[in-house]
TrEMBL record:
Name assigned to this protein: Triosephosphate isomerase
Gene that specifies this protein: tpiA
EC number assigned by the record: 5.3.1.1
Molecular functions per Gene Ontology: triose-phosphate isomerase activity
InterPro entries per the UniProt record, alphabetical: Aldolase_TIM, TIM_sf, TrioseP_Isoase_bac/euk, Triosephosphate_isomerase, Triosephosphate_isomerase_AS
Keyword Phosphoprotein: no
Function: Involved in the gluconeogenesis. Catalyzes stereospecifically the conversion of dihydroxyacetone phosphate (DHAP) to D-glyceraldehyde-3-phosphate (G3P).
Top-level taxon in the UniProt lineage: Bacteria
Gene3D superfamilies in the record: Aldolase class I
Active site: H94 (electrophile), E166 (proton acceptor)
Length: 249
């Protein structure tokens, strides 16, 4: 049985007081679904969030990390630094990182390796741009993103990999992939995994959908058989909206 996961990506939002406020609001919410719940605050607030949620069922995760263990990489954070404050999961390859910070499939492959070497779980993001979908190239784009960054891994590594399909045209735009578009792509992703690693691996990997998931559309999207959860941006900044999504399972 695949895990249901709902992860909130706070991006570059919330200073320390705002983080404390949102954590307080999150802890007032009731969870009625079986989903694993995660939040990804910005680096400066990870420790505070981790401490506040130590006894709770919300996992605090990181939005990014560097592939090196340490060294002359001004402004960067390593897997072991994250681990040393209790963080066990990292989001890698978000489209904003790819677009604004030149992250490539090749550099992401190194980051995935670094996360795995540190026994960290990765939520690996990928997705096509609008022109790829218009030219019906979306499956080829997604296939190459997955192959280039992940297909050097052994099957066993996928125990620590969660995939997040996020069509770039749906992120922060209010435009969502239809539940059918999400399902079609998730089924394609699972088949791509099955072709390389076999059905056992393909059937065990959780595939999240991300891109303008809201309380009003989560149920329909999560109702699709190959959609195992969501990576939530904007709506994760409001505790009630976020839990409405968590409870959409
Ligand atoms: P959004 O962001 O929910 O605001 O569209 C999703 C994401 O970037 O992960």
């Amino acid at each position: 049985m695949r895990k249901h996961i709902v992860a909130g990506n706070w991006k570059m939002n919330n200073d320390l007081p705002q983080t404390e406020l949102l954590l307080t609001e999150l802890l007032k919410q009731n969870q009625t679904s079986d989903a694993e719940v995660m939040i990804a605050p910005t680096f400066t607030n990870l420790w505070q969030a981790f401490e506040s949620l130590r006894q709770e069922s919300i996992e605090v995760i990181a939005q990014n990390m560097h592939f090196a263990e340490n060294g002359a990489y001004t402004g960067e954070i390593s897997a072991s630094m994250l681990k040393s404050i209790g963080i066990k999961t990292v989001i890698l390859g978000h489209s904003e990182r790819r677009a604004y910070y030149n992250e490539t499939d090749e550099s992401l492959a190194k980051k995935v390796d670094a996360a795995l070497a540190n026994d960290m779980r990765t939520i690996f993001c990928f997705g096509e741009e609008l022109q790829d979908r218009k030219s019906e190239n979306h499956e080829a784009v997604v296939e190459s993103q997955i192959k280039n960054a992940l297909f050097h891994l052994e099957a066993d590594a996928f125990k620590n990999i969660v995939l997040a399909y996020e069509p770039v045209w749906a992120i922060g735009t209010g435009e969502t992939a239809s539940p059918e578009q999400a399902q079609d792509m998730h089924a394609f992703i699972r088949k791509t995994l099955a072709d390389k690693y076999g059905n056992d691996v393909a059937d065990s990997v959780s595939i999240l959908y991300g891109g303008s998931v809201k309380p009003g559309n989560a149920k329909e999207i999560f109702g699709k058989p190959d959609v195992d959860g969501g990576l939530i941006g904007g709506a994760s900044l409001n505790a009630e909206d976020f839990y409405a999504i968590v409870n959409a399972f």
